[in-house]
Every structure is written in C-alpha cells, then in structure tokens.
Design a protein that fits this description.
single chain, about 280 residues, alpha/beta, seven-stranded mixed sheet, two-stranded antiparallel sheet, 11 helices, about 35% helix, binds S-adenosylmethionine
Length: about 280
Amino acid sequence: MSAIDTLPPLRQVIADHGLSARKSLGQNFLLDLNLTAKIARQAGDLSQCDVLEIGPGPGGLTRGLLSEGARRVLAIEKDARCLPALEDIAAVYPGRLQIIEGDALEVDPLAHLTPPIRVAANLPYNIGTELLVRWLTPPQWPPFWQSLTLMFQREVAERIVAKPGSKAYGRLAILAQWRADARIVMSLPPEAFTPAPKVSSAVVHLTALEKPRYEADAAILSRVVAAAFNQRRKMLRAALKSTAPDIEDRLRAAGIKPTDRAEQIPLEGFCALAREIART
Ligand code: SAM
C-alpha cells in the first residue's frame, strides 16, 4: 500500500492532536487514505476546480482531494481542535488548502472560491440534509457548484435517489432530481469509520443540470413538497389544505387528482402544481 503523501497516518494525527471524536459534532472519521482518495475520485476531474469541503476533521478526505489533484481546497471546520492538523496538510500543499474555522451553516464560502467549483464532503449527519437542501434551492440556477459528492447515512442517500411510489420518495428526491442528476456511487459499512456509527453510509454524486428539468419557483416547490410529504399518508387535498384556499382546483389544473397521495406524484406533477400555486 503506497502512501498518498508524506504526512503521518491519520491514527497518529488523531493521537498527536488529541482529536477524540465528539458525537455532538457528528464526528465519525475516515482513517483509510486509500478510501478517501477513492471518494475524492468520485468527484471527477478536480485539476481545474476549487473544491469546497465541509467538515474536514483530521483531514482524511482533504488529503485525498489534494493528492487526487484538486486545484484548491477550501475547508470549513467548526472544531478548532482540528486546525493544527489541517495546517500541517496546508504546509505540504503550498497555496492549495485554505482552512476556515467556523460553522458551515453560517460561513459564506463564495468569497473564497473561484469557479469552477465542486463540493466534496463527509458531512456531519446533523447538518447534512440542511446543507444539501440549501445547495439545491437557490433562487437562480445554475448554482455556484458543478457537482456535489457527499457522504450520507445510507437511508438519506436512498431518499435522494428515490423514485415515485417508493417509501423513500419525498422532498429530498424531488429537490435533488429537479435540478441535478443524482447517483449513489459508493457504499460504506459502519466499520469504515472511527468510531463506527450504528448505520451504513453511502456517497451520492450530484451533477447540476444546466437548467431545471421543469420550470418552477424553488421556494414554492420546496414549500409544497414539504407540506405534501409531511402528511404523506393523507390525500393531497387534505395535506395541502393550508397552501392555497382553492387547492383542489389547483391540483386539478396541474393534472393531479386531489385524492392522490404525495408518494404517487412524479416530479413533473409537483412542478406543475408549484406553477399553479405561483399564479395568484
Ligand atoms: N471529513 C472528515 C473525515 O471524513 O474523516 C470528518 C467527517 S465527520 C463525519 C464531520 C466533520 O464535520 C467533523 O470534523 C466535525 O467537527 C465537522 N462539523 C460538524 N458540524 C459542523 C459545522 N456546523 N460546520 C463545519 N464543520 C462541522
């Protein structure tokens, strides 16, 4: 097994810097650098790209991204304990790693990035879905990113790629598939992480489409889909009662039977409904 760089193995980095994993920060670290390099390769050709990484932790994936040739990596990490380890990586890749200490939900990374931009991260489970939804629902499209390569709990990954009629189909599937191609590209057992979480994980790769598959306002679509799936067992006329006073008419105008349930409605139907609701 050849080393991907001249830095110490991650187990040693963790011991040297006292990086005992904190559950509150969703810390499940990847220590196998061959695995992190493999994840980095799923992000595509990085040589001409700036890569945004959320939650680098001790830097396993960061090292993978850099050794795989990323032009630059901007890493946002909330846990100050990780910064010295990340600075050690920056020293080995001069000018190619910028570290920001902060909360990814609050820091605006765009000022520090030059397009084209790709996002790659082993996300903290407690903010992963929120970040994904934000990246998928800006008012304008295309977004700042070309692709997202993200580790999620397996169950969340399945929700992102789910098709209508399945149990996993819901808000995440619709928002992801509306504006991107989404695929599960890797599956990882709990033992791939330290400490091992209770569940399996998967890497999802999303490529931004040039334009959304169907026209719709992002905020309205997001609101409608959230309401529809919040009460997924109810008929849509009941689940969506609060979204418009004449919801039955609007559902019919969008080609949807008011007695249907959210699970049965394809992406195209939700976009048509969002357009109907936008008509005041
Ligand atoms: N990338 C590392 C790896 O693959 O081994 C660590 C992944 S670990 C699942 C998630 C990382 O996100 C941790 O390093 C944690 O400290 C960091 N984190 C948690 N909440 C964060 C937040 N709000 N903003 C930025 N980083 C956060």
